[in-house]
Design a protein that fits this description.
The chain is α/β, with parallel strands linked by helices. The chain has helices at about 5-10, 75-90, 105, 110-115, 135-145, 155-170, 175-180, and strands at about 15-25, 50-55, 65-70, 95-100, 120-125. It is globular, with a radius of gyration of 18 Å.
Length: about 180
């Protein structure tokens, strides 16, 4: 990805994009319970119920920002295209998208969409098997950690909890900046 001078020169927002999923599979964290009465977490299913495509915007000329789109089920090509449009509208300037080699990112329809909107998007690819280079991965981890031990009663409640966790994280610019330093 371009450095600070390159980003300013092109006017593009350096945007790290990644996906994550949440399900009803028990993700157990440390908790308290009366002696001899271990807590029981009940989950409805183990398949991915809510997926999020998330953009973490690098702090080139201001604080970092976090944007997310949440869908039921898995992320497919249509959701990637719609998320790119959404991020472009919300950020308000062309995007330098830095992401991994997820098949949905490499899909012909996504590549054609980016090619026909070259003034709005430029893609940079992370090396294969290098999640430690993407600061957005730490956002996903923070949200998953926040949702430990939650027991949503429905898919809609799970979606609401995921959305709320990303919104809360997005209101912590110092923490988001720390994710960049860590990467």
């Amino acid at each position: 990805a371009a450095g600070k001078k390159g980003a300013r020169r092109t006017g593009r927002a350096i945007t790290f994009v990644d996906e994550t999923g949440q399900s009803f599979r028990a993700r157990v964290g440390t908790t308290w319970a009366p002696v001899g009465q271990p807590p029981v977490l009940r989950r409805v299913s183990q398949r991915r119920e809510v997926s999020s495509i998330v953009a973490l915007v690098a702090p080139v000329d201001g604080p970092p920002h976090l944007y997310a789109r949440h869908v039921l089920g898995s992320i497919h090509t249509a959701q990637v295209k719609e998320a790119l449009r959404y991020f472009r509208r919300r950020i308000g300037r062309p995007l330098e998208v830095v992401w991994d080699h997820l098949p949905a990112h490499q899909a012909k329809l996504v590549q054609e969409f980016v090619a026909t909107h070259a003034e709005d998007y430029h893609l940079e690819w992370l090396p294969a098997y290098a999640p430690e280079l993407n600061p957005e991965e730490l956002c996903n981890g923070a949200v998953k950690h926040e949702l430990l031990n939650t027991q949503p009663a429905s898919v809609e409640e799970l979606r609401h909890q995921v959305r709320r966790a990303f919104v809360r994280l997005g209101r912590q610019p110092d923490r988001l900046a720390g994710f960049f330093r860590h990467a």
